[in-house]
Structure formats: structure tokens, C-alpha cells
Amino acid sequence: MREEVLKRFKPIFYPKSIAVVGALRDPNSFGARAIKTVIDLGYPGKLYPINPKVDGILGLKVYPSVTQVPGPIEFATICVPAHAVPKIMEECVEKGVKAVHIYSAGFSETGTQEGRKLEEDVVEIAKKGDIRVIGPNCEGIYCPESKVSTFSGSSGDVGSVGFFSQSGGHAMNLLIQARVLEICFSKVVSYGNACDLDGADFLEYFAEDPKSNIIAMYIEGVKDGRRFFDLLKNIARKKPTLIFKGGVSKAGARAAESHTGALAGSSAIWDAVFKQTGAVKVSSRDELANTLLVFLHQLRPSNRKVAFINAGGGNSVFAADTLEQAGLEVPTLLPNTIKELRQFIPIPGTSLKNPLDLHRYIIHIDRVIRIVAKDSRFGAIIVALYPDFMLTYTAEVKDFRDITRGIIRAKKSLDIPLTATIRTERVGLTGEIERLKAQDRLIKAGIPVFSSILMAAKAIANAVGYQEFLEKSLNK
Amino acid sequence: MREEVLKRFKPIFYPKSIAVVGALRDPNSFGARAIKTVIDLGYPGKLYPINPKVDGILGLKVYPSVTQVPGPIEFATICVPAHAVPKIMEECVEKGVKAVHIYSAGFSETGTQEGRKLEEDVVEIAKKGDIRVIGPNCEGIYCPESKVSTFSGSSGDVGSVGFFSQSGGHAMNLLIQARVLEICFSKVVSYGNACDLDGADFLEYFAEDPKSNIIAMYIEGVKDGRRFFDLLKNIARKKPTLIFKGGVSKAGARAAESHTGALAGSSAIWDAVFKQTGAVKVSSRDELANTLLVFLHQLRPSNRKVAFINAGGGNSVFAADTLEQAGLEVPTLLPNTIKELRQFIPIPGTSLKNPLDLHRYIIHIDRVIRIVAKDSRFGAIIVALYPDFMLTYTAEVKDFRDITRGIIRAKKSLDIPLTATIRTERVGLTGEIERLKAQDRLIKAGIPVFSSILMAAKAIANAVGYQEFLEKSLNK
Fold first, then answer.
1. Which residue of A246, A364, B62, B309 sits 20 to 30 Å from the alpha carbon of A194, by its own alpha carbon?
2. Which residue of A has its CA nearest to B190?
């Protein structure tokens, strides 16, 4: 079973030869970008641009059709107008291509009879030739291990997140967003209309793929709900499985239909799916990226209690409200902890209950973290930083590196998961530069940086929820 | 009544003379910042730094105590340690000071007996001398019209939003955030522990103040709930009144207590207050800023139906879900509208139902907006822009100014409120620079730019909710 699944996807993620059908000279075209990306990644296999009207692209010989390529072709990316796709598919059958990715849009998602017919034709031809199809109407695949990618500008960094997405935009944006957060992928698939390979197939593959430890997906609908559910029930408890479900509202479901032709299903059904399978529900791409951080860093908060450290009373109240509304708890520090902190943090302008409002004493962040972390009740610590505000109004903070260094120092002796979030008011570039620098320093030191207090709260709550599901199902 | 209220606050917002008690030479100290701000704003009245140990500050003569200042003092800002405040207050009584702002922390918010006692003493002395008190434990006041401010770096731009905040941090940050969004204030007050003047007093003042057309507040608790409610019931229907209530959770309420000593009250009670008074509920500082934009631009969306224009199918699904969950509607475009748009927007890769996914045809944004706006069902139009993504992947977008110019052109002939939101992936500075530039161009053209799709949804839903309340109460 396992071997069979892995084998089915081998020509997709590990093809020995790739054709890009409909490649254009224009460097902005999809085909030219895909070819350049594969070359840049250092793909060791054969790469064939196909176009009857073009001679050479990026120094490669261009063939008029796949059938005229001398060697075998395992995988083809098709980027010709929709009406021309069936003909290309016929040629792929003739050539013995194993799998194709159809970039072109203009199929069932248009809601037109013509589009639906074209898609049916593609499916029929693919069946005849035993070709696996990704798409149509999608961005295709990315596998850094094999140096194959149809996503332009892929980093090539190998990671352990297997991500499949019905939206090409979400896939491209998550790749961009992930890079600075040091989230790396084993494989990424954007699969659009899912005329052949669907969510359930990718789920099955990533479950078996030894290179994927975490599964993430953006789905608008699944074709075989029962199969998807049965797979998920089995898989989510073995590998953390994060689902960003698009089309949870009436208008969203309609938008999903005209995006990928998907039938979204009711949100009540999906809520039941999450509850019964242990799959982690995320409601936005941001929540997906932030929740991935928690799982990738293997934070495993032991419970819902968090210590929140920051500067500012209003910020503290907001954080407490946000954390509690996300399902976390913010218990008061123990009297002994407060006593120890009070030895170097005066009372006026500060609060040491939890959230901790350190005010100007944020400069003692390393000592504060270490003392708070001695309280074993806490499942996680969140430090919230406001670089532009602190640099402007806290005279003691002359160089923001002093703050991040303190956090990094504290982390070294810590058992409790330590996380951070950084906010600037985004009024000019100064704050943004400080934010990027601070974020980079913390991430490089292994401290995940969430994009907001809300996202920190949701990501940690998601991780605890997953832990709780596992414990409950073990005890059953 | 009205005259009385305005008169009570005159020494606070329009003082003819100001003393800064406890001013230090250190340019980072609160007092020195306050003095510099007042000088920079061009305050025409008398300004007296007070400190027995300092000779001159910023070129001004320093007096050893308020009692030794030759002329009268209407308003004093006190920034000495808490234990020294009662003595200063006694001197203020002797001097006949009309109102004070106590910056110092270390009073009832500490929860200590000493702190509570100090605050009681302050109240007693103030009563004796008929002095109005703002604070303690707060940032004070800002009135651009009179060029008075204890908030360093105030812009001095006169606007129509009256804002009072129990958190100094939220007040300072809203001022920073507001500047780039061109939100300007009539008056701002940060009033911390509210030992004398409380939320109800400020509410009463802003209701009568002819310079304040919109009232916004951040409150953690109110001392006289009945009075606050009665005022609000009367005021919110006359001037839009936005309330960001901190401490809505158990942990948040506790944090509020150690921040300003406030009793937060149950969230059920507050929900009833919102429902009965027509005050607009916002749940974060971001939602406050974004909702202010809608009221300031007087958008008055006629109903809950919005047209959402952007590029990207996944983005469209997410927007539809987000808008509907915020209580807005995203109805399908009329067949005639779609037909007209289809004359220049091909089917593949696009969707024209609503949300509109224009894909690369985003370059025709001006024509699209104009055609969509002919459909009088819509209460508002939202355009979502992704500058870094569009510049990277949409070959047709060579200069992002082409897009913003199109939107600005379209606005000229429009009756329906036109709004925008801009997202970048925040991975480097390029996207941020494009975002800031695009935001600036749109704002200068009178198009409000929300910070996210979620914030656009909430802000517009808040405005419609307020309209609906007004209509309902008119029909009663």
C-alpha cells in the first residue's frame, strides 16, 4: 500500500525528465519562469521546453512537441490556452508521459459548458493513457529535495512540511511568507480544480512520505468526502495536520465554486471533521503560517497556561483578553515569583501579575524570563516587543539588540517553550527595519516570532488543542 | 448646563498658563519632553518648569515651586515620584491652580495600601482647592487647537475626533498610527486611574464640545455606571461614539485592575450597553483606528452589501468568508454588470461574480470600479491590493502607480463609498515601501485604506450597524 502510494507520486515529485509545454521566450511568462526556477535549483534531470514557434529558451533546445523529444518524459507542465490542452494531452499519451501539471485556467471553474467539456476531455484522455493530472488551473509543484519546481523563485531549502493547496495564490504567498520565518517544505502542491488528483490523494501521499512530518493544506472542497475523512482520522493523530478551509460562508462557498469549481460543504460538517479527526483548524493563511511555527519548533506546550511578558498596561489588558478569548489561560504569578521579581522591578508603572507589564524594566528581560520560567505551571511564555515604541519612549533602550540578546540568553537555560511577537505601528520604515532585524535575530536563535498577539494566542492554542486530542485518544 | 461643562474643562484644554512640576534637564524625561512639545507646537501662553534643583530647561527659567511663580497658573502637569505628589498638590491649592494632570504612577493601581492612601490624599486636597485632576498614572492631554500637549511629538494637526483613553500606551500609539492615516483629533486625554475626572466626565465634555464630531474612547472601567450609561444613551445617537473596552475577559479584567485600578464589569452588561445606546463596539486599537476612518470619511454605507475587487482566487474566497463573518453581504453581480465587464476581461483565470478576481486585468481597475458602482444595491466597494505580489507576478503591472491612479480616477465619478486595503508579505523592505507609497497616494485622494481585509470588514460593518441603529431609533 505504502510503496504503491509513493510510487504513484514518484513521477510528480522525483521526475527524471520534465517537459514545459507552451514555454515562451517572455521571461515573465509562466513557462519561462518555471524553466528558470528548475535551472536555478540545479535540477539534475532532462529539461525540455516545448513550443513549435520558438527556437531556444534560456539556452535550451526547444522541441516542437513532446512526441519529438528523443528521450522519455516523466512529467510535463502544460501552459497553453485551455482549448489547446486536450491536443497536448493526446501527445502526452502517445509519448508515455507519466504525470502532468496543467497550469492553464479556463476549465470547469468558469462555470461554462465549454470549460466543463474541456475538463471532461482532459480527464478522459488522462485515463486512457494512465496519466496522473495536477490541476488544471493551478501553480503546480515544488520539491526542493529533487530540485523540481513550477513555483518561480523557490528557495530550494529542504524542510519537513508537506503542503497542498487548492489556491495557487495561497501557495505562492505561503512560500514567500515562510521564507523569512524559516519554515521549509518537503513538498508543495497547488492543484486547482483537482480533475484527477484531489485533496484525499495528496493527504494519502503526505501521510506515507517519510520526508513530510507535518501536513498542511488549503482546501475549498473535496470530491470524495468519506475517503478524505477516513484518511484524516487515521493520519492526523500520526502527523500534525493543519487545515485552512476556504469557503466556510455562503459567499465564500460561491467564490470557491468559481475559483476551483469546488463544492465547499457546510461549516457544521467541517467542524465535526475537525473534532473527530484531530486535524487542526486554522482560519487564515496567517494562522496557518503561525501555527506551523509552533509545530515546526516542536514547542508542545504542556497545557493552556501562558505567561505573557511585555511593556504597557493597555497592551497587557489587550493581551489578556486576546489570550483568554483564544482559549488560553493567564493565571496570576505565584507570590514567590512576584517577590523575586520585585527585588529589581519597582512597583510604580509596572505590574507583575500576568501579563507582566515591565515598563522600562524591559531591559531586565533575561532575568525576568528565567524567574518566570521556574513556575512549572506554565505551558509557554510569550514575550511581546514594540521596537519603535520602546526605542522612542524608553530611554533605557538605546539599542534594540540589548532586548533580543536578553531573550536569547534566557532561552539557553529554559525548558518551557519561549516565543515572541513584535509589533510596530507601520508608519514609516524605521520601525519596520527594527522589526525585521529583531525578528531575524530571534528566529536564528530558534525562537518563533508570531505576527501578532492574536496569532501567538491562536497558534499556541492550536498546538495545545492537538496535544489534548492525542492524550484523549490515547486514554480511550 | 452646556456652558458649565465647557467651562469646567477650559483650564484643561485651553489654559493660559502651564506649569510642569518636576521637570528635569534629561531630554528623555517626561517633563522635558512635555515642555519641548508645547514649545514646538507654538503654545502662546506662559510656560513654567518647576524644580527646586534645576536652573534652566530648554532656555526657560525654572521656578523652585509653583507658589513662587509670579503670574497665575491654570494648569499643572505633575511628574514627581508618587509620595511627593500630595505636597505638590497642597502648593497647587495655595497657588490657585485650576486643574492638574498627574503623570506619576504608584497610586491605587499598585494594589498596595500605601498607593491607595496616596490617591485618597490627592483627591482630598484637590476637593479642598476645587482642582480638577486628570490621572494619576497617565499621559495627560493633547489639544492641537490651543497648542497644548503632554504627548511628546504631537503633530498639532487639528481634527474632529475627541479621544479619551484609560491607557497612555493606547493613546500614544493611536496618535502615532493615526498620523499616517490622516486621522486628526480635536482633543486627546489619557486619564489612567481617574481619581477625579472619569470616563463619564470626558464623555459629557466631548458631547458638548463643538470641535469634536466623533467620540472615541478606550476604557477599562467606569466609576458611575448609571451616569455613564445615561449620558451614552443620549450622546451616541448625536455623535458617533466608538468604545474600545479593555478587560472583557477574566484575565483582562484582572490586568485592568492592576493597570488603572479599574473595575471592568461583566461583558454581558457591556454588550447590553452597546445594544441600547448605539455606541459602536470595537475590540482592538486597530479596529478603533480603522472604524474611525469610516466615520471620518463620512462613508455612510447605505446597507450591508459590498462589492469586493481584487486579484487571486484564494484571496477572493478568504475575503468572502471574512466579509460575511463580519456581518456584511457579498451578493453576486447582476448579469448585466458581468456582461459589460466581460467585454474586456476574458474568462480564464478570472471571476466576476463577487468577490471579483481580476487576475492580470487589475490594470483595468478604473473601468471595473465604474461599472460595478452602477449597481445601486451596493453600500460600499472595497479594493484589495497586493503590491509586492502584483509587481512580481503580474507582468502587466510595471509601476504600481498605474493601479492607484486608476482607483483615484474611478473615485471622481462615484457615489458609492470607495475604500481600499493593501497587503504585503512583510518579508523585506521593498513590499513595505510600495505599501506605504500606495497607501499615501490613496489617502491623499480621500480613499480610506484599511489595514487588512478583516479590518475593512469590521469597520464597514460597524458603520452600517450605527446607521441601522439610528434608523431604528428614528422609527420608534
1. B309
2. A314
